[in-house]
Prior knowledge:
29% of the residues lie in helices and 21% in strands. By secondary structure, it is α/β, with parallel strands linked by helices. The strands form 3 sheets. A 5-stranded mixed sheet has the order 3-4-5-7-6, covered by helices on one side. A two-stranded parallel sheet has the order 1-2. A two-stranded antiparallel sheet has the order 8-9. Helix 2 packs parallel to helix 3. The longest helix is centred in the N-terminal third of the chain and has 22 residues, at 19-40. It is globular and about 50 Å long.
Amino acid sequence: DFSSNYLHPELERTNAMSPIEAQMFAQSLIYSGIKFICDNTKLHSIKVIGLCGNHGRICVKPSHNDFASMNMEYVMYKNIERECELTNLPVEFYIPKSEIALVDMPDGNKFLFTHGQSIRGGNGIAGILPALMRACLKWGHTFHQTKTYCGHFHQLMSTPTVSVNGSLMGYNPLSIAGQYISEEPQQLYEVWSENLGHIATRNIYTK
């Protein structure tokens, strides 16, 4: 008897929204989160990095020189930036058109951010770590970053040189196809101090 009672729910999950609907929903969530932080903290300014990933692209194989202009996420971040300006929120946006963002800190640290879709590999016995370390080493020769942050792999981890954000979706058909390890929906939260460096890494579980 192969009724639905015996099927694993992660194998049967389907998309609940179209890409446009998902973009509008994500836009409202991100803006409301930024506004909540502004309304409930004493921060004088907030810097937001808006990087495009592979899911928002509107072409099969985008050009590296024209990456953001062929991506719906670029429009989404620009809309959020405009909404924050109209509501006078103390937020500064950095929305690069390239696949990476470099942030120089006053204390000399430099952080590299990327969605991670250009990092190849990750299906071997050691998982995604060798591919991540190889990419960070190559970027480091040019950018000399203190640490690299990315997502894409639906698998949260943190090392001294690279951190990977988790997935709000949790384990789903994409995770199965990518042979990722099953984990709960979660996000990565790290705190850096100008005087002390890295001081905290926490998992934020979303259910």
